[in-house]
Amino acid sequence: MAENPNDWELETKLVRGGMMRSPYGEISEALYLTQSFAYDTAEAADERFGGGPGFIYQRFGNPTTQMFEDRMALLEGAETCRATASGMAAIHVALSGLLRAGDHLVAGRALFGSCRWIISEWLPRFGVEATYVDATDLDAWKNAVRPNTKAFLVESPANPLLEVTAIGAVAEIAHAAGAKLVVDNVFATPVFQKPLALGADIVVYSATKHIDGQGRVLGGAILGSTELMTEAYKDILRHTGPALSPFNAWVLLKGLETLELRVRRQAENAGKVAGAIAASSKVKKTLYPGRPDHPQAAIIANQMTGGGNVVAFDLGSREAAFRFLNALAIVDISNNLGDAKSMATHPCTTTHRSMPEAERLEIGLTEGWVRMSVGLEGAGDLVRDVSRALDAA
Q: Which residue ranges of the chain lie beneath pLDDT 50?
């Protein structure tokens, strides 16, 4: 009896979604390390280049990459997914496909440093203007709209201070203006938040983070309706070459098999670590989407099913933050996140270093903040390590 994969439970989608077996009947997905493909006849090549079924060139598609794309689409509840070489490639393509010279973009001001660079430094070279807003202020979104506004961009939760945006409400504002809403869903993961179901038009991921989740490869994904994905992204992906390698796609497929198990345990650990951090007298402020004292707790309860694995906390000064980081014995000092290994970083000098100080202050990012990605180690060990480092701070 044929099964409809859309009817599967989340865990089944993560393990079996998008599977294409070769005639050999392999259990683990096949890894097709090939740049190009052969055709039986010249007529077959003509048909395939004309839009017929089959693969042409790795830059356009590959069986292993397609399995990853199909599984991601099934997981997200999207009609179509297109994979990219990195998360930043996904953001770049997601915006470039929607915007052209003379257009206007509205973006939440709390963004990863490289995203801010693309918006502030790169897109203006091609005639695209942008306005940053407080993403939690719906009136700010409305007031920023211009006649030429074509896209909204938001991270939720945002990097690094975990600001959460009411995605459905912002989507309504964008659509009323004739614009598309792009949501970076990396911190929430597709397990804890579904932006398309909330009204977003496009969802992007850095698959480097939780989807791989084991510090191995780079990857990205863009998801949305087939119509929009074709109209906005088919040609730019085909001709500019931000393709995901088949090997990385294969690694990411194996990562998806355990994604739900990993992020739920990471979130459980993060809640315990956040509690220990919040209880310390050394900490001025603690932010974690799983805590009831988060500033957007009501929005989180409405649109997220878990708090994720990232905790942010303010130690008051760069010196205190550095003392904390240098005293860690288990947790690594690293700018990555979503990994099985816990890691912590000082955003002002790493992930958000390229942002001018005035822009960092706009989002409340002062020198005392530390961002911690909680992993899969024993919660007791992590609490002990963090508590000891807080004493040293």
A: none
